Amino acid sequence: MIETSGGLGLGGPELQDVLHAAALAPSLHNSQPWRFRVTADGIELHADPERRPRVADPSGREMRLACGAALFNLRLALTGHGVRPLVTVLPNPLEPDLVAVVRRGGGRPPTPAERRLLAAMPHRHTNRRPFTADPVANPARHALRRAALDEGAWLDLVTDPATRAALSHLARRAHERQIADPGFVAELERWTARERGHADGVPLSAAGPVPWPNAAWVMRDFSAGSGPDHGYEADPLIAVLSVHGDGLHEEIRAGQAMQRVLLTATAHGLATSFLSQLVEVPDVREHMRRLISGARPPQVVLRIGHGWPVPGTPRRPLSELLVDADDPTREDPS
Predict the structure, then answer these.
(1) pLDDT band at 195, cuts 50/70/90?
(2) Which of 37, 95, 160, 243 lies in disulfide reach of 323, CB 3.0 to 4.6 Å?
């Protein structure tokens, strides 16, 4: 399938390992909206708009977040093979779906911190089930904030009771707005509560229970109403990730920061899931910006805590993720 990339200095098995790692990134409804092209010089990461949930993500912002997360995994996996990744984001204005080109910028071994993130990568799964009441310790909180800063982002941990109450109210408002939209509900049903045999979407095994309607934090029902009825924890750690602004570059930066935060949480034994409705409804997102971060628009809202191990969601085979290197319709990004 893949023989080599001379520019990266990696053979076929190593390249497959790197691309499999990139494809472990999270995405809205596990849509996996990315493709890769191996060239003589390196690896291209492409967004795949055909796989974007268009009702929940009309602008493609969450698609670009997912591609940013895949880019972080790609960088990290290359480092694990002794390659210092040299990344060019959005290299070709004529090809907006070309998210990044990654080339070899020399060689260096991974740091101990990078080794911990590499070890966490296959164990990072979105945990849609209830967490325990155990608080997140201060050293882990510091590490999560540091992870965001390392990628040029901010992670606000929402601890003030009044702010948490306001954010919970906003989450409920956004959720009710979305489930009142038949198009949104139909799209959610297409991607979730899937039986075995699908290589994408959220299977029933990863869906979690049906949340109680009066829960403090509204959770999406990924089971199409077929899961057991169960209460969720009332006091999870809520974290809001933001970058300098909106725009393609900043969204890809946010995706990379999101993935570093998620892997850091996994390395600290923490469970994570998303409160995506807060950033998907525009007026709610704007209200949350004023509430949490002032000038910086929020990109990701995370629920973090202690949970039990959960199965991962399926992944598409590598053969479906590769762009033909000899495609004559493509522009040369160099």
Answers:
(1) confident
(2) 37
